[in-house]
Specification:
single chain, 231 residues, mainly alpha, 5 helices, 3 strands, binds zinc ion
């Protein structure tokens, strides 16, 4: 194989390597992307916190209602037991009973509101829990596909790198350095010549140049500087 041929083969390996590297990083990105899952987890956590808070409020409201009802019972028994005879005291007790009754009604209304709030959050928690389960399952399935895919790509990459090293070791070191220099500047260092044109820049190559290239000399395109390769 000519020197340009070796460099062309090296370039093919480099292109393949680059593609595989790209594939690997895409798979790795997908493997680490669990944003939807994390968002659902944090939503569930805050909903559970809200639920606990609402339940606490409901319980407190329940106790307050019990207290009011107990007080009301005591006043009622004072009012209707016949023990209290003083009319002024009876009027006061009556007033107190009225006040308590309206407090009890207000408390009962508030309690109903709190209970429906608790129910509402309970149903939200249920929905998010279901969603989280679904996302977790999807995540697991994705991992099961992507993990072996990743290992597969890594094996191929290792093989390609080995092949590249073996080939690079056979190539004249000055030509290899030239290849690396052009590759850095141009992306690809070797260009095929077809129908007298450099396929790197599509400019016509002088006949004497491509003849030399075909004879095995290392010739660079006058226009794009790439190493010319004729099959
Ligand atoms: Zn060119």
């Amino acid at each position: 194989m000519s020197l340009a041929g070796q460099l062309y083969k090296l370039q093919q390996l480099d292109v393949e390597l680059q593609g595989k590297q790209q594939e690997l990083s895409e798979v790795e990105n997908q493997l680490s992307d669990n944003k939807a899952l994390a968002a659902a987890e944090s939503r569930l956590a805050s909903q559970k916190e809200g639920l606990e808070d609402a339940r606490k409020k409901q319980k407190n409201s329940d106790w307050e209602l019990e207290d009011l009802q107990e007080k009301n019972k005591q006043i009622s028994s004072k009012l209707y037991s016949g023990k209290t005879k003083d009319p002024k005291e009876l009027v006061n007790l009556e007033k107190e009973a009225q006040g308590l009754k309206s407090q009890i009604r207000a408390k009962e209304d508030a309690l109903l509101g709190l209970m429906s709030k608790v129910e509402e959050i309970e149903s939200e928690v249920k929905t998010t829990t279901g969603e989280l389960e679904r996302l977790n399952k999807e995540w697991e399935q994705k991992q099961q596909i992507l993990r072996p895919r990743k290992s597969e790509i890594e094996v191929t990459l290792a093989e390609l790198k080995g092949e590249r090293n073996r080939l690079a070791a056979q190539i004249d070191s000055e030509a290899f350095r030239l290849y690396e220099r052009i590759r850095l500047a141009r992306g690809q260092a070797v260009a095929k010549v077809e129908r007298g044109r450099c396929l790197g820049c599509h400019i016509t190559v002088p006949t004497s140049q491509w003849q030399k290239a075909r004879a095995g000399d290392l010739i660079q395109c006058n226009n794009c500087n790439r190493i010319l390769y004729l099959e």
